[in-house]
Amino acid sequence: MTNLYNILNATAQRQPAQVAVCDCEKHLQVTYSQLVERIDSLAKRLQDAGIGPGVCVGLPIASGLNYIVTTYALWKLNACVVPIPLELAPREKRQVCQRIAIAAVISNDRSVSFLSGMEVKEDVRVGSCRVIHLMPAREHPAGFDQVNAAFIRFSSGTTGTAKGIVLSHETIFDRIHAANAGLRLTPEDRVVWLLSMAYHFAVSIVAYLTFGTTIILHKRGIDLGRAVIEDAADQGATIIYGGPAHYELMARDRSGRQIGSLRLAISTATALSVDTAQAFLERFRVPLTQAYGIIEIGLPCINLRHAAEKIDSVGQPLPGFEVRLFDRNAPGNLGSIGFCGKGLLDAYYDPWQTRAEIMQDGWFHTGDLGEIDEDGSLYIRGRANEMINIGGMKFFPREVEEVLTSHPAIEEAVVFAARQGNAREFACAQVVSRAEAKQLPSPAELRQFCAKRLAHFKVPQEVEFVTTLERTASGKLVRRAVVREI
Question: Are 336 and 313 in contact (CB under 8 A)?
Fold first, then answer.
């Protein structure tokens, strides 16, 4: 059977002195040989603490070198990793443990309060962390033991109940090779990492270490944009992997410092605005490349060919994937996006569904709506269940959000459907003002701003200023239809 630890170990045998992780915050460089030594040492201690094959282990720990070492140590022991993002509320963390047969949690003292009320069998100190053995809240579903499970990660839960997505070692191996057909990672690459490892590990981090790159963990600080630029320049970064918010902060930096070694800046996790992409290109003379990442699939699309001129596209599917549009009955002749290819999920955990059951027609249906142009480039236009229907006139929230954020005083916006009782839907918006805005428009003025740029039925009837927008732990906007009492 495939084991991702063995694959990393083979990379370390080929290039033991190559730096695997550069932690700029701690001024620490760890070679591939040293990384495997740390993993081996922790694996021995975890084994002594009762972790073994087939055990599902929850990881509520911060992104960084320790996350990498702990994950691979568990894989060496043939245990299954279940990320528990620190961003989740205590109730949400408990739900992860209750919906999956988690038998142990590895964490530090500050991150285990969510276990209150759960049955603890044993609490073992392993160095600076704790291994807390639990009485599993349930048994594994029938069929789980037939999967060489490496990872169970919940989807973001943007549009309903999150699902536990089961990925085997073989599946992750397939998807990192599919992604590298586009990324073309080599030991010469140095990758600045900006995202949460709880959400972005099973393609990106594993790919970087499999293909021998150096992962750069940036310094933290008040001026994040400046810190990322300095670390990228100082470390000779060739790739940056982050979200739109990171690139916006970098584009706003006025130090003038360039990153001459940069060959690829990948934006993922949420939609990239045209303004951010253009500002980054002007500032660094490197186009932002949108990538379409889906935990069930991997990284099927990266806009490698037309990043500068097709800013709002996620590009063409990589060689290992096919994309097709189904059910073209949305506004603008949009279709429901489906993919087939290598590295797709093995199963949903609860309720248990195998890949064959999920993909009965051979295609994974993402729930996103989009279009494909004459060059085969894919554009994501929204999710089918986010569409707003105003008396039969349908539109997607993103179109209105882009108009709102084009106002010089508005930083962010979210648009969603609302209705009173059984009355028809109407659009509402929440907006966050820019910190530098000297004078804020009134809600009525924002509605007038939209009315000049949008069809009348798309103009939000209500606009509310808020300090922050609700997001999932992975950073995606939450758009929930609201029913109000009359």
Answer: no
3-class secondary structure for 173-239? HHHHHHHHHHHCCCCCCEEEECCCCCCCCCCHHHHHHHCCCEEEECCCCCCHHHHHHHHHHHCCCCE
E strands within 9-73?
Answer: 19-23, 28-31, 56-59
Instruction: Of 479, 477, 478, 475, give the one whose Cα is nearest residue 246.
Output: 475
Distance of CA 377 to the CA centre of its chain: 21
* Order of strands across the sheet that contains 482-484: 462-465, 426-433, 410-420, 482-484
> CATH code at 414?
3.30.300.30
**By percentage, how much of the chain surpasses pLDDT 90?**
72
- Is residue 8 within 8 Å of 34, Cβ to Cβ? no
* CA 236 from centre of chain: 25
Query: Are 166 and 81 contained in the same domain?
Result: yes
Helix (H, G, I), strand (E, B) or coil at 102: strand
Q: Within a domain: residue 377?
A: no
Find the Cα–Cα–Cα–Cα dihedral 214, 217, 219, 225, rounded to 10°: 90
Average pLDDT, the chain: 91
Coil, helix or strand for 78? Answer: coil
What pTM was estimated for this model as a whole? 0.84
Radius of gyration, CA atoms only, the chain? 23
Domain range enclosing 222: 4-372
Segment 71-112, tens digit of pLDDT? 999 999 999 999 998 888 888 888 899 899 999 999 987 778
Q: Calculate the alpha carbon distances from 415 to 137, 158, 225, 385, 475 in Å.
A: 38, 14, 28, 13, 16
Name the domain boundary from 372, 400, 428: 372
Whichever domain contains 99, its CATH number is 3.40.50.12780
Does residue 378 belong to any structural domain of this protein? no
